[in-house]
Amino acid sequence: MSKYYSLLLASMLLALRGRAQTAPTVRPALVAATLYLNGTTLEHQAQVTLTAGQNRLALEGLSPLLDPESVEIELGPGAELLSVSNDEENANPVALNQAAADSLGRNMSEQARVEADIKGLEQERTFLLANQTLPTGTQANWSAEVQKGATLMRTRLPAIQQELGQRQATLARLQRQAGQLSPRAAATGAANRLVVQVRATRPFSAPLTVRYYVPGAQPWSPDLAIRANGSGRELKFVTRGQVRNQSGLPWARVRVVLSRQDIGRRVARPVLEPWELHRDGQGSGGEGRVDKFVVKGTAKGRPMEAASSRYEVAEPVTLAAGGRRELTLSSVDLAARPEYLAIPRLSEHVFLQAKVTGWQGLQLPDAAKVYYRGAYVGSTQLDGRAFNDSLEVALGHDEQLVVSRAKLEDFSENVALSDKRRVHLTYELNVLNNHPTAVRVRVLDEVPISADKEIVVKVLDISGAQLDERTGKLTWLLTLAPGASQRLKFGFQVDYPKDENVEIIRRRTRISAPKTR
C-alpha cells in the first residue's frame, strides 16, 4: 500500500512540475496573407528548437480576431502535434485585448457597410446622369416626362451628394478609430496566444507553420478600367485592387494573394428534390406553364475554362493594421471586334459594344469603368461566367449613327362572322451611317407574344429579320456603307375577344390596345 501511495505522490509532483514549467515563447513571423471576399487567411512561419520527448510551446503574435476552429499547425518530419489550446495561465490581458479585438471587428464590418452605401450612391448618380435623354416614343407625353425627369434630377442629385458627404465623413472617422484600436487588439496576451504540445523523436530545429482564418467583410475588392481606342478594336484592361488589412496585425513585407472566392460557407452537396407538376397554379417555386418553360442563360458558343480566381501580388506588401491600399494588379491589351447595337423602341441612341476574346484569367468585377477615345463614358456590367468565348463590353453611344422608329399603320376592325376584334400595327425603322467607313449594326425590336389562347398574334412582315418565337424578339444584322441608310418594316395583327380589353405588357408598363408605342 505504501508503495502505491509513493508512486501516486511522485506522479502528482511530476504533473505539478510540468504544469508549473513555463513554456518557451515563440513569435512566428507573419509571412503571407490570402484575402478572400469574406475574410483573410494568415500564415506565420518560424524555426523552433525541440527536445526529445514532449515539448510545450507558447505561440504569440497571432491575430486576436482569429477563428479558433480554423487553426492549422504544420511541423517538420520527426515532430508530432499533440494538442493546441488557449493559454489559460496568461489570462490577465484577455479583457483588454478581447474588448479591443471585438471593437475592431465591429469597426471593420461597419466600414464595409458604409463603403457599400457609398458605392451604391455613386452608381445611382452615374445612372441618373447617363439617362438624361428621353427614349424614342415618349414625345406624345413629353411635357409630363420632362417634368418628372427634371424634378428627379433637381431633388435626387443634391440628396445623393449630401448623403455621399455624410458617409465619407463616417468612413474617415471609422478609419481613425481602427488605427487606434489595432495596436491594442494586437497586443501580446491570451487573446492571441496559443499553447502547443509537441512530441519529438529527437532533439532538432523544426520548421513551424501556423495558418488560420480571420473573418471580415470584403477585405479586398477589384476595380477594373477598360480603355478603348477610337476604332474600338483595341481594349486595355487595367485591373486594380482595393486592399484592406482587417487581420488585426500589421503587415511587414507580407506576400499577398487575392482571391474572388468566399470561404467558410457550408460545402454540403445540394439535394435534387422531385420535380412536380401542379394544376391551376398550385405549388410554389415553379417555372410556369409546362409548355412555356423559360430557359435562363444561354448555351451558345463553347464552354470556356473558368477564369483564375487567384492573383498573386508581385511585390511584398507593408500595411498597418486597419489600413488600406490600392494595388495595380495587371494591365492587358486585348483585340476586340466592334459592333453597333440599336434598339429604337427603347432609345434613340446607337450603342457601340466591343466583343473581346482572350479575357479568361482576368480579375473581372461585376462592373467596370469605361473610357472611350480618352474620355470617361460611364460604367458597364460584366459577366465572366458566360459560356461564349467572347466578352461583350459596352463603350457608350455613337452620334454618327442615327436611328428612328415610326408607326405607319394603327387601326382596328371587327372580324367578320366572329366575336373577335383585330388590331393592325406596322412600324418602320430607319438607320443612317454618317461614318466615313462601313459599319456593322445589329438592330433589335420585337412583336408581342400571347400566353392566352383567346388572344392570337400573327406576324405579317419582318423585312428579313430573325424572329425568336418564344420571346418575340426581332434581330437584323446590317452592314452599312459610308453615308448609306436602310429602312426596315415589320407588322403584326392581334385578334382578341371584342368584349374584352387587351393590354400589351412589358415589365411594369401597360399600354392598352390598339395604341402602342
Automatic annotation (TrEMBL):
Residues 208-498 form the DUF4139 domain. Residues 1-22 form the signal peptide. InterPro entries: CHP02231 (IPR011935), DUF4139 (IPR037291), DUF4140 (IPR025554). Residues 33-128 form the DUF4140 domain. Pfam families: DUF4139 (PF13598), DUF4140 (PF13600). Keywords: Signal. This is DUF4139 domain-containing protein. It comes from Hymenobacter sediminicola. The lineage of its organism: Bacteria, Pseudomonadati, Bacteroidota, Cytophagia, Cytophagales.
